[in-house]
Specification:
heterodimer, A: 541 residues, alpha/beta, Glutaredoxin, Rossmann fold, Ubiquitin-like (UB roll), 4 domains, five-stranded mixed beta sheet, four-stranded mixed beta sheet, 15 strands, globular, B: 159 residues, alpha+beta, 7 helices, 45% helix
Chain lengths: 541, 159
């Protein structure tokens, strides 16, 4: 089919750009112009395609041919392949080590075929800086229907029945939060989108903003209509300059097309969105801290008792605060219905989960899977197992608020409640795979080093407790551990979890308690047997 | 503060309304433009927003993004995210400390290098990684770190 028009998609996510994808794009463009490809093919740049570790990525559609680790030298061969009679560039295809053959289509690559990309539906497929591309992919179809044909109550009911849950520690039902904000008295309300992804080891918020910013905006506009707000903020880390730039372009284009601003699509509803750049404080993921941060103050969680943010949030007004992924799910739920969404996932965890799959795993990148998938499927099927023939040891989810799950739990379903029961959490969606060369005491020390730095310091249990836990863990890794340290860590951890003011402190002990729960013998080996089983702690070598 | 810097701050302020809620965006703009928050710049922002200098420092010292001292021409940021940590970020940081002769948080006296760490730059699939000014370098090994540092030595800026 030599006369078929093809699209050459070049990933321009942060990962691929660091591998030279910008220069690659220009070189492909120049070579295609030089050979005058005309009707045969055209180029498009996209956001993150997910398989960041294999970047830079080039996909040829509609065939779905997937080239990875593409270099500038490969450009002539790729362009030749688009000419009549051109041959696929086999050396750039993904090589499957199990079947020992190259795989042509990305949908057949194990990394992709077990995924269910709903929130990431457009990431890697559309040009994030072209609203026309989002529209062509079915974007802004939920909004007119919602504004014209649905009452706010109907929308909230739909969201509630979908079973969508938030990504804070508690997995709070999104519909109930919306309902609370709608019912809160007041004419002035706000919507905040939390893109402060401060968790080390997670990058899905960044990828969604870089790859499909309009899906987040569409969800926010619908949310604004449902709760009765006219102004929204997207709180994005300043460390994500590309996400900020693309979101800014999206906002401008949405205003030009009348999806943002006054009297949206003739409905009489006004809504506008601005970007607020977070200046780097993990605790600002906590809702009251984020609100203070937008108000221009230190982001320190408000002391108890305090009203809920849905009642008195930004500038004391009722405020709806949801995550990037939560908003990106909304257009899908409105378009396809609560029943469609609720038919995916498990009894109490609906839809999909997004994970940044990284660490000691063959295939790392951004994945979206149905809730309830087994941990084994993620690590072995999608992730391709552990590299270099090493042994799988643990998976860490939920970042500094989560915990480490041991290999014995590899058959557990991955959903909100199973993760919490196992001592971890869904949270930000970081999933870091660890092998036999990872020391669990060192991992716990690592996370406590993070939380002690990020503790805002206003409440004593968190300020002092994280420091004390860190000091004990540090001494164990330095061969200075004492009998009784493990018990003391457990006692301290429990006290910090019970008495801290906000989520940061309440969950700070999870990495310690979960590693003691599942890897106690490794702590004991350090203290009693004078030995670091993983060979990580320098003092024991 | 140099005259040029003063002019830059003035220009930034002219694009904002004088609302206390604009403090963080203004400080971010000043920092991006000048590289850090000079004392005179902070005083200008205080006068503009009609708030105390102390209030600005209270905010500026809270957020890790803000620098109160000048930064080097090459701002080397080592990621200490989880994926980077277990794939060898501590060794990478050690190698860079040796290479540029600085400890974390320090700036060389000739203002060539600043060495800092960040919680995560979100390139976890390319761990371990660092950022030099705006450019991310991933899948580093101690040997590749040496190459990257050598490539900076030629006097090229990559800002």
């Amino acid at each position: 089919m030599p006369d078929k028009q093809r699209t050459v998609l070049v990933c321009q996510g942060t990962g691929c750009i660091s591998g030279g994808a910008e220069r690659l794009y220009s070189a492909l463009e120049a070579e295609m112009a030089r050979l005058n490809l005309g009707e045969l093919a055209w180029m498009k740049y996209t956001g993150c395609h997910g398989f960041c570790q294999r970047g830079p990525l080039v996909v040829i559609e509609p065939d779905g041919i997937f080239y990875s680790k593409v270099k500038l030298d490969d450009v002539p061969d790729i362009v030749q392949s688009l000419l009549p009679g051109g041959r696929t560039v086999e050396r750039l295809l993904y090589h499957d080590s199990v079947i020992d053959r190259p795989i042509f289509h990305y949908r057949d690559i194990p990394f992709y075929y077990k995924q269910q990309r709903l929130v990431l539906r457009n990431c890697g497929n559309i040009n994030p800086e072209d609203i026309g591309d989002y529209l062509a992919a079915g974007g802004y179809q939920a909004l007119p229907g919602a504004l014209a044909g649905m009452t706010p109550e109907r929308i909230i009911d739909e969201v509630e029945r979908s079973g969508l849950r938030g990504l804070g520690g508690a997995g709070f039902p999104t519909g109930r939060k919306w309902d609370a904000c709608r019912r809160a008295p007041g004419d002035e309300k706000y919507v905040i989108c939390n893109g402060d992804e401060g968790d080390p080891g997670a990058f899905q918020d960044r990828s969604v903003l870089e790859g499909d910013p309009h899906s987040v905006l569409e969800g926010m506009i619908i949310a604004g209509y449902a709760v009765g707000a006219n102004r929204g903020f997207v709180y994005v880390r300043a460390e994500y300059p590309l996400a900020i730039r693309r979101l800014g372009v999206a906002i401008t284009q949405a205003r030009e097309r009348g999806y943002l601003g006054r009297n949206i699509l003739g409905s009489g509803f006004d809504f506008d969105v601005e970007i607020f750049q977070g200046a780097g404080a993990f605790v600002c993921g906590e809702s009251t801290a984020m609100v203070l941060s937008i108000e221009g103050r230190r982001g320190m969680p408000k002391p108890l008792p305090r009203p809920r943010t849905t009642e008195a949030g930004l500038w004391g007004k009722p405020t709806l605060l949801n995550n990037i992924k939560t908003f990106a799910n909304i257009p899908l739920i409105i378009n396809r219905g609560a029943g469609w969404f609720a038919s995916r996932g498990t009894e109490n965890s609906k839809g999909t989960a997004i994970f940044s799959l990284t660490g000691k795993v063959v295939n790392s990148g951004l994945i979206e899977v149905p809730m309830g998938i087994r941990l084994r499927e993620i690590v072995y099927d999608i992730g391709g197992g552990i590299p270099d023939g090493r042994a799988f040891k643990a998976v860490q989810t939920g970042g500094p608020s989560g915990g480490c799950l041991p290999v014995e739990l590899v058959n557990m379903p991955v959903d909100f409640d199973s993760l919490t029961a196992a001592g971890s959490m869904m949270g930000s969606g970081g999933m870091v795979v660890m092998d036999q060369d990872t020391c669990m005491v060192d991992v716990a020390r690592y996370f406590l080093d993070f939380t002690r730095r990020e503790s805002c310091g206003q409440c004593m249990p968190c300020r002092v407790g994280t420091k004390q836990m860190f000091d004990i863990l540090d001494s164990i890794t330095k061969r200075e551990g004492k009998p009784g340290d493990i018990e003391l860590l457990e006692e301290l951890g429990t006290a910090v979890a019970r008495t801290s003011l906000c989520g940061l402190g309440q969950t700070a002990a999870n990495p310690v308690l979960s590693t003691i729960r599942y890897f106690r013998e490794e702590y004991e080996a350090h203290i009693y047997d004078d030995y670091c089983p993983a060979g990580v702690c320098q003092a024991y070598l | 503060m140099e005259e040029l810097q003063e002019e830059r701050v003035r220009q930034i302020l002219s694009s904002y309304e004088s609302e206390p809620g604009r403090l963080v965006p203004i400080l971010l703009d000043v920092q991006t433009s000048i590289g850090y928050l000079p004392e005179e710049g902070v005083q200008m922002v205080a006068r503009f927003l009609n708030i105390g200098v102390g209030q600005i420092y209270s905010v500026a010292s809270f957020y890790s993004r803000f620098q109160l001292t000048p930064v080097g021409r090459h701002r080397v940021t080592v990621c200490r995210g989880t994926a980077c940590h277990i794939r060898g970020a501590p060794q990478i940081l050690g190698e860079i400390e040796k290479g540029v002769g600085l400890k974390e948080g320090e700036t060389s006296s000739d203002l060539e290098y600043t060495l800092e760490t960040v919680a995560c730059i979100g390139c976890c699939a390319l761990a371990p990684c660092i950022k030099i000014n705006a450019d991310v370098h991933g899948e580093l090994t101690p040997r590749r770190v040496k190459e990257v540092l050598l490539s900076l030595g030629g006097g090229e800026t990559d800002a």
